[in-house]
């Protein structure tokens, strides 16, 4: 008998429902069970009334994926949700890995969303008009030496750099080191955009530079975007030119 | 008298309307004039009946932005649309620059969308679960030496690399050189995902490796995603582990 279960791994975008795709809404609506970190299930609470909702605390990713697979193997359509794009530092990878590990035969569809760096970029102006890197400063799962090497390579290549997870309560020095590494290759007046709660309630936008960026409030819901050597500020907008001759 | 004109720079996502955000739909609906390259205005034709639609050919970006500003200065709400995310190699930068250049006082709102690399990643599985770079291989506006340097830095840092504009009819050697540069630092069996028309009609997904990637059909509507050293393939899905111990 064919299993009718299915797993959707859904990126709900920055948080405000208006930035979610119709496909994400439809997939949530089709699902019988909704699983996610409770901050995210709260964000979509209007869409999930009358559904089985299983929310959990942070750092329970593997447990959450196993539960998702259990429910899908029972024949249910299950949505596991994360913010931004589930395919960018989200749940898509770990969900696939849990399915592989348990050798389960179940369809997994990743529904993309608007990722945090793109949401923050839109609020800043147009800082990611040219080649860019995204680097997470969380060393929970990644060796800090590898992260430092990537920061160095990104700075050397004069990429626009988006920093995910720049700072948390227990992890405060990484952003300082990251800035030091940037300064080895980028000038201290390189433009830096700092957006807290991009494209959702409580959004706060600051445009500063590498020299002064640490004076700003930076936390886990903040995106830090460091420009390339041509990035500039005008009319309170941060813009990285693509190279057009106007 | 205050000018009631406004400019929306809208990313419509991969092309299928279901991946567009509600905010993008609402902004189009609010707009009196819609301006864009005609492939894109065609993609949203169901949303723009009874509006003034100005479509133009390729490589008319500056002209399109000037026209957008002209219309907005007449007091109209104008949407200039591009595919994917208008903030990622899209129209957001050049639109701001034209407004700056003409010293116009007009509100410009960038409405983010799902960018091509994220759409392609969702179709491949979960290749961008870790630090990544996006690099455009188009040397129309960027010095090829700078692009080569960035490819080198991206390969050295073992980033996942998304290549935008990998190849066009008149530009065929860049993807070959890019591959050579990758091979200086990445193994020849590094996983490569190639997605044509990601998340829209005519989607085609291939998973191959650095050694064999040039055997595949690659063009301007193709996204090439090169994995890092830990990226693997299982059940036809390309996955880059984040580092969880399952």
From TrEMBL, chains A, B:
InterPro entries: 4pyrrol_Mease (IPR000878), 4pyrrol_Methylase_sf (IPR035996), 4pyrrole_Mease_sub1 (IPR014777), 4pyrrole_Mease_sub2 (IPR014776), Cbl_synth_CobJ/CibH_dom (IPR006363), Precorrin_MeTrfase (IPR051810). SUPFAM superfamilies: Tetrapyrrole methylase. GO terms for biological process: cobalamin biosynthetic process; methylation. Residues 6-212 form the Tetrapyrrole methylase domain. The keyword Transferase applies. One of its GO terms (molecular function) is methyltransferase activity. Keywords: Cobalamin biosynthesis, Methyltransferase, S-adenosyl-L-methionine, Transferase. Pathway: Cofactor biosynthesis; adenosylcobalamin biosynthesis. The keyword Methyltransferase applies. This is Precorrin-3B C(17)-methyltransferase. It comes from Anaeromicrobium sediminis. The lineage of its organism: Bacteria, Bacillati, Bacillota, Clostridia, Peptostreptococcales. The gene is cobJ.
